[in-house]
């Protein structure tokens, strides 16, 4: 996110005292949409369809009708199938109301069923979690359709065993503590002496701020909330031995082959923020249906996100590099075997203290 936003759930109660105004807005939107539709029907003959007035009315009808439906859903906020939340942007002094479906599978499935005359192909390096497509099939509704479908995983053309090393740590302390971040800073300090371009993937701006206070080195580039990520990426490419500390956009869709990126440090497992309104609503619905939200949603999502972050390293057949994962929970927690099982290579495990002592000796 590039702006500081306050996000929280809401219900129809926020419109108390403004019901009449809401009905007035809704009525005007419906009237505009209805009048545009009437005009389109009057001009239904083929000879009128290329006229500017016909195209304008069609545009007005489609836009207004879509806005009317969205306004009705968001102002009533009583649909159990949706997560309703507002976004307040202080510097703009406005509030944005959002209503998003909790289950994305149903609307996506309807779209697929409406086009049974065509085939769909989904391909990505991160469609699976724990070597299973179940998460993706639930999100797209494929697990509910009777349409024939085929799924498979294929070996990459990259020789990960030769091209990539993955290093995990124990003895790092609770990843939510300052002690953890202090130890992470020490590892980063050691790795920064390699003069190789590096990514440090954070899961929050608080982590970035912590590291910013620790490192006053000009090679470090720190992502800011209000800063353009593309500009930071350009600076990273231009600087020798650059160390970019970022979150959000830098976990995916970034292509830095060769010596543009040779080391990745992942601070923590990228679990979704638990108080995010959409995540909270989805987890609540799962619990109501006797489904374990952590096992069936939170963990698979985090594994996919982790694979996306790791995937920034090897982009070509001659790339080589190292990935350091500092969150020891993947070694100590019961879910860790699912995380480790999704790695491209078997990781090496170091004790923090032993690692630091070896580096000092070398």
UniProtKB/TrEMBL annotation:
<dbReference type="InterPro" id="IPR006555">
    <property type="entry name" value="ATP-dep_Helicase_C"/>
</dbReference>
<dbReference type="InterPro" id="IPR027417">
    <property type="entry name" value="P-loop_NTPase"/>
</dbReference>
<feature type="domain" description="ATP-dependent helicase C-terminal">
    <location>
        <begin position="205"/>
        <end position="332"/>
    </location>
</feature>
<protein>
    <recommendedName>
        <fullName>ATP-dependent helicase C-terminal domain-containing protein</fullName>
    </recommendedName>
</protein>
<comment type="similarity">
    <text>Belongs to the helicase family. DinG subfamily.</text>
</comment>
<dbReference type="GO" id="GO:0016818">
    <property type="term" value="F:hydrolase activity, acting on acid anhydrides, in phosphorus-containing anhydrides"/>
</dbReference>
<dbReference type="GO" id="GO:0006139">
    <property type="term" value="P:nucleobase-containing compound metabolic process"/>
</dbReference>
<dbReference type="GO" id="GO:0003676">
    <property type="term" value="F:nucleic acid binding"/>
</dbReference>
<dbReference type="Pfam" id="PF13307">
    <property type="entry name" value="Helicase_C_2"/>
</dbReference>
<dbReference type="GO" id="GO:0003678">
    <property type="term" value="F:DNA helicase activity"/>
</dbReference>
<dbReference type="GO" id="GO:0005524">
    <property type="term" value="F:ATP binding"/>
</dbReference>
<dbReference type="InterPro" id="IPR045028">
    <property type="entry name" value="DinG/Rad3-like"/>
</dbReference>
């Amino acid at each position: 996110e590039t702006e500081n936003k306050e996000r929280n759930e809401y219900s129809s109660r926020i419109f108390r005292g403004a019901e009449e105004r809401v009905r007035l807005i809704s009525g005007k939107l419906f009237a505009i949409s209805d009048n545009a539709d009437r005009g389109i029907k009057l001009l239904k003959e083929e000879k009128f369809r290329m006229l500017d007035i016909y195209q304008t009315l069609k545009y007005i009808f489609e836009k207004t009708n879509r806005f009317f439906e969205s306004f009705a859903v968001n102002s009533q906020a009583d649909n159990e199938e949706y997560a309703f939340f507002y976004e307040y942007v202080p510097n703009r002094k406005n509030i944005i109301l959002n209503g998003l479906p909790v289950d994305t599978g149903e609307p996506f499935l309807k779209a697929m069923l409406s086009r049974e005359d065509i085939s769909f192909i989904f391909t990505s390096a991160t469609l699976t979690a724990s070597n299973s497509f179940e998460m993706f099939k639930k999100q797209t509704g494929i697990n509910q359709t009777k349409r024939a479908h085929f799924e498979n995983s294929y070996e990459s053309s990259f020789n990960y065993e030769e091209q990539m090393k993955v290093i995990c740590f124990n003895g790092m302390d609770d990843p939510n503590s300052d002690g953890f971040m202090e130890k992470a800073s020490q590892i980063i300090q050691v790795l920064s002496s390699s003069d190789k371009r590096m990514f440090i993937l954070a899961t929050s701006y608080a982590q970035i701020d912590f590291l910013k206070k620790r490192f006053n080195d000009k090679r470090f580039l720190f992502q800011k909330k209000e800063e353009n990520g593309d500009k930071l990426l350009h600076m990273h490419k231009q600087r020798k031995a650059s160390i970019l500390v970022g979150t959000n956009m830098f976990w995916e869709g970034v292509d830095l082959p060769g010596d543009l990126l040779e080391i990745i440090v992942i601070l923590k497992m990228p679990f979704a923020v638990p108080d995010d309104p959409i995540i909270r609503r989805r987890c609540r619905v799962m619990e109501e249906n006797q489904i374990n939200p952590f096992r069936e949603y939170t963990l698979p999502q985090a594994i996919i996100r982790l694979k996306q972050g790791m995937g920034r390293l090897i982009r070509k057949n001659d790339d080589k590099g190292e990935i350091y994962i500092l969150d020891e929970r993947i070694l100590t927690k019961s879910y860790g075997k699912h995380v480790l099982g999704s790695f491209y290579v078997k990781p090496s495990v170091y004790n923090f203290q032993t690692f630091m002592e070896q580096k000092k000796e070398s």
